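2024-03-11 09:14:02 INFO queue: dequeued item methylmalonate-semialdehyde dehydrogenase (CoA acylating), len=499
2024-03-11 09:14:02 INFO validating residues
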Amino acid sequence: MVRDITHFIGGTPTPGTSERWGDVFDPSTGSVQARVPLASADEVRAAIANAEAAQPGWAATNPQKRARVFMRFLELIRDEMDDLATLLSQEHGKTLDDARGDIQRGVEVIEFCIGAPHLLKGEYSTGVGTGIDVYSLRQPLGVVAGITPFNFPAMIPLWQMGPALASGNAFILKPSERDPSVGVRIAELFLEAGLPAGVLNVVHGDKEAVDTLLTDPRVRAIGFVGSTPIAEYIYSTANAHGKRAQCFGGAKNHLVVMPDADLDQAADALIGAGYGSAGERCMAISVAVPVGEETADALTAKLVERIAKLKVGPSLEPGMDYGPLVNRAAVDRVTGYIEAGIDAGAELVVDGRGFTVPGHESGFYLGPTLFDRVTTDMSIYLEEIFGPVLVVARAKDYEEALRMASEHEYGNGVGIFTRDGDAARDFVERVNVGMVGVNVPIPVPIAYYTFGGWKRSGFGDLNQHGADAFRFYTKTKTVTSRWPSGIREGASFVIPTMH
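2024-03-11 09:14:37 INFO prediction written
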């Protein structure tokens, strides 16, 4: 039976009224399992109104009490981890273990946000002039919103809403319409944890909902994760309407493999980072860059051995390495890239097209695909494929490998595998990429550091989670205070200085 998903507005599950719907599939079977309402502008405005009404009371709640709501939320989400992971897996297609990881990485940011009372402290300087003190306050922006992608339906909403709520803002989540149920359930758990109704609202929708959030003056800031063209659109539109924007786009993450690297370790890293979650990760390693022909030949042989052993199947079936893609359009898109790679002259070493799972022939599956001898002018090198496709782009030496990663238009994540500390240190210093891993395949920082790419992978001055998130979701007020001592000095027409 196909169920109807609701919005979550003012602390209440709210049926859609726009009469526009999107299908939510079970990727493992290809069948429609739910309908999601696509909000009208009026429905989005209702969520904004609820948030605006609830925010002052939440902002007036002291940070310690807000942190206690987060502590209770952590208890609730941990108790519901298995059910939430199942819900996530059924709509997204990632395996249960991967779904738990999705949730856990979001939970770690919520844990960090319990320290909000410390992170929100201002500064104080006494006696900067005769009888004059200066201090600063960090205050919430008001109503803020997050537009999140399908590939991490728990982690990225938690990355955005955690610091926003801990800072005293009200938050409106517009999750992906492809797998929207997890966002609603997270909002319900926050309400149960003690978050006042209306402080966290969830509205589903398409461009109409997004544009309403971007143009409504009551929304003071927008966070976004998705493709680069949409990130650019949201960033520029938000700025044109006087909003802060924190927008993260596409990626083409390289992994440089030096001749001295442990090739078994490197191959295992590439298999997990390239094919995990069917490659539907912005931090997926999609380009292997072995240095030297001998390294490339040996690495490719090890990759082929491991690919042959990968288990691909229904997301809820134990023992699967990865499951289906999110929908049929994703399969068709990735298949198109495979065909483009063949046409461009890349060597197709392993072909994942036509992959089927017995009993699930209508599921959205693609087998692991491997290209070798890919050149930097090919679309499969230049563009984000977002599927289980790994390409090997050989470099003749270290400098060429460094240049490949640095000159690509995306600058999200990069890694190097080597035993040479000098090479690793030089790579970290010189590579033009925002997040770097040394013998680490997926360089996602821990919760108390910030996450964000460079170049066309990120738009905005501040990154996600860590201290940057609290800076993004607050504004600084600086106070200069003087209490007269009773001595009258008369009017002064000179700009004040401290001397």
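2024-03-11 09:14:37 INFO annotate: The longest strand covers residues 132-140.
2024-03-11 09:14:38 INFO item closed
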